[in-house]
Amino acid sequence: MIVKCLIPVIMSLMFLMSCNIIEEAIGIDKNEDDDKDKIVRPVEFFIDTTVSVSAQSAVITGNDGFSLIIPQGLTVSPFRVQVNRPWEVDSSDGIKILNCYDVNLSFGNTFNPPLTITIPFDMSKVENIDSLKAAYYDEVSRTWVPFDSRVVQNGSFTFTTNHLTRLGVLEIITSGGYTYKFTGAKGVEVYYTLSGKHAVMSPSDYGEVSDQPYHIPTSDPLWAPVYVQDIAFTIKEVREILAASPDSLKAPKPDETVTVYVKYMEGSDGQYGTVSGSIYINNSVTLPSNMSGITKRQILRSTAAHEYLHFIQDYYYVMNNASIGQWWLEALATQADRLVWGDKLVYCESEIYSIESFATLIENLSKSWDDCNADPNWYLAGCFFNYLSKHRNGSKLNIASILKVGGSSNSIYRIVLDEQIKSQLSSDIGKEYADYVRYLFEKGNQNLTVLTGGVAHLEMNPSFNETIERNGQSKTEEKSITVPYLAVKMITLKNGGTDTLKTEIKKRFSLDKEIYLCEYDKPNEKFTGFVPITNTGVISTLAKKNDKNYILIINKSTSGNATVNLVMSNVEEVEDVKIDAFQYMQFTLLSSGDAFSYSDGKKDNIFEVGFLSDQSTRSIESEFKNDGTFSIISEKVFGAVVPGGFDEEGSSYDSCRLTVQGKYKGNVLYDVSIKQNKQTITPNGARVKNSNGDDILVNAVLIETRSLLIDMIVLDQDFSYYAFGKQWSGDDIQSHVIDLEHSIEKYAQYDNKLETITKTEINNVDWGLMSSMTMYLGKK
To answer: In which band, very low, low, confident or very high, does the pLDDT at 3 lie, cut at 50, 70 and 90?
Structure first.
């Protein structure tokens, strides 16, 4: 039973989503002014006794057939058992409550092993025995949640539960007072009405016309308002796409019908009812306030996809298990529209949340990623999924696989995600979370950023930021910042004086944390710089009064809080350490085994990119700019190619272009990208069939691409005659590598076109086998 809100109206134009689980919304209220969620509290005890289960199980029965079996050893001390029968339980027209109890044990409300409960009911009041459900009422989310394990026998329901609250036997009534039913989309039925507060929004308010191929014209007996048709055909489409490859998610059998109810839902855009197995969609949609280029139809379709994904989750998750986190289900459901339509959407649902609720997203980042026990935090947790499946460099996370594994695992969900990241991406959740944070601050992607409202919103959030003001007379200070696991916090360093302020910032020893000194690029609304703060220190320079730098502290660990100590001290006016401009670069990664696996099944223990030797015959353009960026382009082209081979000149390739780009500050290089493209042409090296079907020999073209992206290099080691050198080992290697790629493509070249013959690429790196990574820089 999931309720989800996509676009409610909020104060101060803030997009605050709400999610309530309200199974009573199945039907339409007869009296629209009644509070149908009201449940009157019981005033007398049906059973009130004290028992002990230290030596044997306890069986407690009522005079109406109710029974409660408490297993031996559940607790060692005697305890009180109270069973209350409410005087009155109001429900909607869609649910008939046949019997209901409140059950409480004095020592707690969650148990292992579970309790066994039998609830009697009057068979004469049952219209359809197949519609019976045993369920508990969630007082927090105000939802009836069905029990998965249950037995119906002789007018009673028996089930087990590991937690206690209000319990009952229900019958689902599908009529519910709806005037119309649309059946024009195969496998979907939509119930709706055109009058009263539950009426579908008018065509003029919806603003979408009947212009889709699936729309049924008004002359057809199956016709329904466009709003209703859009819901029905969207769910049909989503059902078909998600059930097909590659997602292959479970779905209703072909002859089963998905039932949808459209009604006024009091601030929620949609919900899925796990008791009835039906989907509920609000009778109107509202456009978001902070974005353009999005239509009400897209909002409605995203809502329908979201709720259908909840429908699918019911195949994988035991919804009455107290350990199932609603935040996890909602975070996954925000990926539904992207799963179905990919890049065809202007904004996916996660991106809408990040834009409309940016202030809340900032608050979320200051807490652990999975510390989200309320709406809209449930949905904002999905922004991390969106990054992993859409925006990260290299391979992308498969959300369908995450959904499946989450339903069968007993692990904490962040551990589930960590295991899937390791399996799918050869990475880990800590590294990916740190990259996700950097993406939110650094990429300037207006669809996924924390800087929608500018940097002031970051500075004003006391949970996320602390401002430190220093001037030329400030003394050395040590600042301690505590950051929860998988969370980030910020320090704003402000120049409170009138002169240029130079502050050296050093970190004390700390693991699993990334700490960066950044600047804010106001025109592009993003952070720049990202100079790593190490124990050797970096310099912050603030030229004028009120100038600011920002320190981001990311805790990559998966448990516990981490305390970071930063030492800040003023520095004298000294000449900055400068990097001696270099003209070439080479990286070599070595592993103790075959760590690099290729798509054709081959493996290797070495990866190299760049050049050290033979620079005299290369054209080199090396530029180090005053803005802190550098670029090197190195290219070599050989002479004429001879038939049957190459014009060998100490090398086996005909042309190669090497591009190195990045940033530098002091003796630190960061965001270093090195790309190498090599092309070899072999005359008559490939056999193909021409247009007549005859075999002919044509030129074979081999294109090899290697690339490596490194986060930071501190140039503090001298290697022989090279200008600079650096070597990493063991676990330090993966933490510095942001992306690594190697592909080899062979083409046949003829008739002014290229025809692919073979292609292979690295599809997995076993970082546990990595032994060393060496970097050399040099000059001609």
So the answer is: very low
Q: pLDDT tens digit string along 554-572?
A: 999 999 898 898 999 998 6
DSSP sequence for 496-529: -SSS-EEEEEEE-S-SSEEEEEEEEETTTTEEEE
User: Which residues have C-beta within 8 Å of that of residue 592, sequence separation ≥ 6?
Assistant: 605, 769, 770, 771
Shared domain for 168 and 196, answered yes or no, is no
pLDDT in tens, 109-128: 788 889 999 999 988 888 77
Judge whether 334 and 326 are in contact, CB under 8 Å: no
Q: Which residues pair with 674 in a beta bridge?
A: 660, 708
Residue written as token pair 């060692």 = 76
User: Alpha-carbon distance 315 to 694, whole Å?
Assistant: 55
Residues 425 and 530 in one domain: no
Residues 54, 145, single domain; the answer is yes
Tokens of 678: 């090599």
CATH number of the domain that residue 426 is part of: 1.10.390
**CATH code, domain carrying 81:** 2.60.220.30
The C-alpha atoms of residue 481 and residue 499 are separated, in whole angstroms, by 28
Query: What's the predicted TM-score (pTM) here?
Result: 0.64
The burial class, CB within 10 Å (0-12 / 13-18 / 19+), for 507 is buried
Closest listed residue to residue 767, CA positions, set 512, 587, 586, 591: 591
